[in-house]
Amino acid sequence: MITSELLHETLKDNFGFEKFRPNQEKIINSILTGKDALAIMPTGGGKSICFQLPALLLPGLTIVISPLIALMKDQVDSLKANGIEACYINSSQSSSEQQEHIENIISHKNKLVYVAPESLSYLENTFNQVTISLIAIDEAHCISSWGHDFRPAYTNLGYLKKRFPSTPILALTATADKATRQDISQQLNLTNPVISISSFDRKNLSLEVRPALDRVQQIIDFIEHKPNDCGIVYCLSRKTTEELADKLQKRGISAKAYHAGLDNNTRAKTQDEFINDDCQVVCATIAFGMGIDKSNVRWVIHYNLPKNIEGYYQEIGRAGRDGLPSETVLFESYGDVIQLQKFAAQGLNSEVQLSKLERMKQYADAVSCRRKILLSYFGEIVTENCGNCDVCKNPPAFFDGTILAQKALSAIIRLKESEALPVIVDFLRGSRNAYILEKGYENLKTYGVGTDVSWYDWNQYVIQLINQGYCEIAFHLKNQIKLTPLAHEVLFNGEKVQLTTIQKEIPDKANGKESKAIKPKKDSLFEKLRTLRYEISKRDKVPAYVIFSDAVLREIESHRPMSEEELIAIDGVGKAKLEKYGDVFIDAVIEFQKAKIVKQKKASTTYKETFKMLENGLSVEEIALQRNLGISTVMSHIAKLYEDGADIDLSNFVSTKEVQRIAKAKIFLESPTALKPYFDYFEEEISYDKIRLSLSIIAKKENI
Ligand code: ADP
Ligand code: ZN
Predict the structure, then answer these.
(1) What are the tens digits of pLDDT across the range 464-475?
(2) Residue nearest (by alpha carbon) to ligand 1 atom 27
(3) Which atom of ligand 1 is nearest to the CA of 42?
(4) Could you give all domains of the chain from N- to C-terminal order, each with its CATH number?
(5) Beta bridge partners of residue 453, listed in sequence order
(6) What pTM, to 2 d.p., does this model score?
(7) Which amino acids bring their CB within 6 angstroms of ligand 1?
(8) Which parts of the chain register pLDDT below 50?
């Protein structure tokens, strides 16, 4: 009898995890009772455990069918790091290598074998010699031509049920739609499968859409604020991936391009470097990512608008598999929409593709919680706003834009609905460029009625009018802007138009406070652990995240385990990893703690020295001179001494009035940790030293 306790024990001992993620236990239980199952979980939801854990408890062999060699290698590496013997079989191996694996399988040394559907035949004989306890089919949507990733070799998998009628089959996929789901179950001949559909909500992913204004610079700023975090930039064209990678490299960012046009070696190398933390950023087409299990992708940027929400969600899903907060940014550009619309109209199934694109665009233009929109697309109804998307964090402000709308719509009429957006904006702004003059547009009414609004803002306002249905783009007519009947209501029947204010500042730049806060601290314990992990990964030739995920390193940082008992209590540390890596990580924590104590001691001696001199009546300047320190360093000692309770009269250095002014500023500025915001607030009138001392006085008062 397999109890829940036993399942939890197996999970902790072998994988290091304290508890199951939603649905994992349910799926495992259905397999252990011999039933077929279909598991639908988002990318990063934790599908692997659903077959890896039963494989350990079942008597025979577990076969895992997986489409990609890179993925198999990764999973086998991870299993081995957890002390679990596993192997994969594929056509790139020599026959002696294959033979060795097969012998291990027959002698029950290996409980799991990964194999691509094309290579199943290599194992035909082996299957006659062992009991097959479980067949797991990963990326099962590949069997369905309804899915977006159909693979012909998968269609043969239907024979497995006939060949092994009493072996449970577990099909796993991140594709949710109903048609694909039914197709998977039918084609694999599953008998009454237990179907479990997990929530698609990935709460740790933040969602953000930005206008595609100076995208490259925005991306550079973004990356420079997180120099240790790796991420993926998805681009529409191969050319863009190369150009962008090039620009990032020129800024000293370790970035590479990846697309289907590059040769296999280059692609494999880039993928390896990314997985092994040797390359920070991959600028890629959607060809990149399927074979990647890397759990510490900290961000995903879409340089271009994706074609549909399915693709978008899968791509952003590659961030934050370890469950730690991760960022996603989508750049929306009018040009992209036009281009994608063209592609969709020309391609197969154009109506469906166009309507999918329309949903994507609606998502990008949303003025309400984005996560709600995404989840409703996948059929999940959520009532609460998420609080982790840009709309929730910074709700758009509406204003009465009727006059602006009237101006723009009249301009469109004057131009006989025959011009595209840029010309309309030039016309409104009274531009005297060659095209306008050649057409004689400067003589028309409405020309130049909008000189007071910037080019960028006009552009955005007209896009808002398009989004609200007052006008539309005629894609087949060189993107001319046409009015809709709604426009007439605004122009002639007094209908009011609400527009949203345009956010000028790019979030990262706008808030110096915030962007400083996210800069990693070089000498933090986390960074030390990361470096240690990197060194071990080089030595053992496995990806860094296979050793410990970022989430585990964060836990170690906050709990500071200094013994084996303390380390194994951390979520993500199992027995095998404790044995293999425990000592070095515990040593690293101990060393860090020791260094901290030495530093504190040193600091306290230097403060004491300053205090003694003060007591002896020396001035700040004299102390600085004698101790060969800067004046502001001595002042910072005084502040610290005062905060720690030393009897020092600070009124010699800062007046009560100044303290009061700074106290007020503190409330106004929402208590920033840095001094610079104060310095800027007083327009450099109050010195840093005075600010620092005042804050000490205020802090002490607040603490009483
Ligand atoms: P999927 O195949 O669904 O995309 P994975 O099986 O690769 O997801 O799991 C994603 C991440 O979640 C991995 O880093 C894995 O170690 C982690 N994970 C899986 N199950 C748990 C759990 N119960 N507790 C904590 N982390 C887990
Ligand atoms: Zn939200």
Answers:
(1) 898 788 998 887
(2) 46
(3) 3
(4) 4-197 (3.40.50.300), 205-349 (3.40.50.300), 398-500 (1.10.10.10), 560-702 (no CATH)
(5) none
(6) 0.78
(7) 17, 20-21, 24, 41, 43-49, 293, 295, 321-322, 549
(8) 506-518
